[in-house]
Amino acid sequence: MSGALTALVTSVLTVVLLLGVTAAAPIRTGSRLGDGVAIAGVALTPPMGWNTWNSYGCDLSDRIVRQAADAMVSSGLRDAGYRYVIVDDCWFDPARGPGGVLRADPARFPQGMKAVADYVHARGLKFGIYGSPNDRTCAQLGGAYPGRTGSAGHEAADARTFADWGVDYLKYDWCAPESDLDRQLTAFTRMRDALRDTGRPIVYSINANSDVLAVPPGAIYDWSGIATMWRTTNDVTPAWALGLGVATSQGIREILDTTAPLAARAGPDHWPDPDMLEIGVAGIPGSLTPGLTAAEQRTQFGMWALLAAPLIAGNALPSMDFATRALLTNPDVIAVDQDPLAAPATAVPGTAGKVWRRNLSDGSVVAALSNDDRSATRIDTSAAAVGLPAAPHYQVHDLWTGATSTTDGPLGATVAAHDTVLLRLRPDTSA
Fold it and tell me: Name one Pfam family in it (predicted).
């Protein structure tokens, strides 16, 4: 959590030029967009689930989705709180059917998407699907998939189709080479209203960013009046940091630099989204995206939870190893993410962004000691600094190891490179 956001929010001229906001009607940085809660009651805590894209991309099939649903049950992810099975881009027939109706690719989803949704629902899970507010999805725009099946001009019909299929979650990806704010507001609002009109409780997840040439709109504005969750950055990758700027995919460190200062925008039915979890996702050794180390995976999971971010896994579930499963199902860390108070995480002053804290609904405080250095470093703070009331002693619970201890005030640890120590603290009333 560096000072990257300082430059972000002060680059007003760049933002104005990027988004096409005229001097006559500026929308201020940080403004809340929309007219209230997007769709009430669909996500009182951050959504948890699994998405096909990070492990399968366009290589989708009915079999892959059903296997993932089965694995969510057998692995314990469902019981840990993961509910949504989300089919990302490339699920559709490249051509719409009679009357312009969306339909599944007949070769890979021969029984159609309602049958897939029924299978997912029968396992106590919820079903998600993907679309775009423009005429092409991202894969179609990039040439990886044929056709023009975006929802532009078809919003009401597509929303009704999704509801009829039993869709519980819509990921709606901008997918256009420009990001005019007025056009984005109109397009995303049109689908929000269409989803509302179906009467079905559907989580509405948007991405307004699409490789824009400067700070992404998802970081500049508060989209909580339009979407249930909104992406704050461009796409996450299985890397710590790419160093390529904000107009490309990003690593965990870069996404945290942008998203952590936006934590106050989180709350019931509106969650800033730093993108999917790369835990257990295979990287390419020797490349810019080599995969995350065990320490980096702890940092992603722990900091996403501290920020009350949606937890959407992206690993290949049927082949998930024990370490990945244990991390993704850690009940103490999930409890932080899902805490109903949804209090914002804040940086502790004087710690150079290495200590963050958050109040929980039971009166405890979670502190994260996060090391973005390339070598182990000592990080120290105190119970008073993280906001605990004065007390003779404090209980300290390590959320990774389960170990408990007490302190009379000082807190600290030697934290490995790119790792995060996550502690839950409360006054010790046993004495």
Answer: Melibiase_C
How far is Cα 159 from Cα 110, in angstroms, rounded to an integer?
21
405 forms beta bridges with 396
Q: Domain extents for the chain? A: 4-337, 346-427
Q: How many residues does the chain have?
A: 431
Average pLDDT of every residue of the chain: 92
At the topology level of CATH, where does 346-427 sit? Answer: Immunoglobulin-like (2.60.40)
The closest of 45, 142, 54, 150 to 94, measured between CA atoms, is: 150
Is 130:88 a contact under the CB 8 Å cutoff? yes
Give the Cβ contact number of residue 235 at 10 Å: 18
> Is the pLDDT at 256 greater than 50, yes or no?
yes
The answer to whether 384 and 407 have CB atoms below 8 angstroms apart is no
Least confident interval from 1-10, 150-159, 228-237, 349-358: 1-10
Q: Which two tokens stand for residue 421?
A: 């120590």
Q: Among candidates 303, 305, 234, 316, which has minimal Cα distance to 275? A: 234
The answer to whether domain 4-337 and domain 346-427 are alike in fold is no
Identity of the amino acid at 40 = A
Matching residue, tokens 């300082």:
6
Phi/psi of residue 346, nearest 5 degrees: -135, 150
Instruction: Work out the angle between the directed axes of helices 112-122 and 62-74 (0-180°, nearest 10).
Output: 10
CB 244 within 8 A of CB 20: no
Name the CATH superfamily housing domain 4-337.
Answer: Aldolase class I (3.20.20.70)
Considering only residues 239 and 16, tell me which one the structure prediction assigns the higher pLDDT: 239
56-106 pLDDT, tens digit per residue, is: 999 999 999 999 999 999 999 999 999 999 999 999 999 999 999 999 999
The helix/strand/coil state of 427 is strand
Q: Active-site positions? A: 173, 235
pLDDT at 10: 36
* pTM, rounded to two decimals: 0.93
User: Cα separation of 255 and 365, whole Å?
Assistant: 24
How far are the Cα atoms of 302, 320, 348, 411 from residue 296, in angstroms, in the given order? 10, 18, 21, 22
Q: Give me the sheet containing 404-407, strands edge to edge.
A: 346-347, 355-359, 365-370, 420-427, 394-398, 404-407
Cα 34 to Cα 31: distance, rounded to the nearest angstrom? 10
- Identify any residues that bridge with 205 across adjacent strands, giving them in sequence order: 171, 229
CA–CA dist 137, 215 (Å, integer): 22
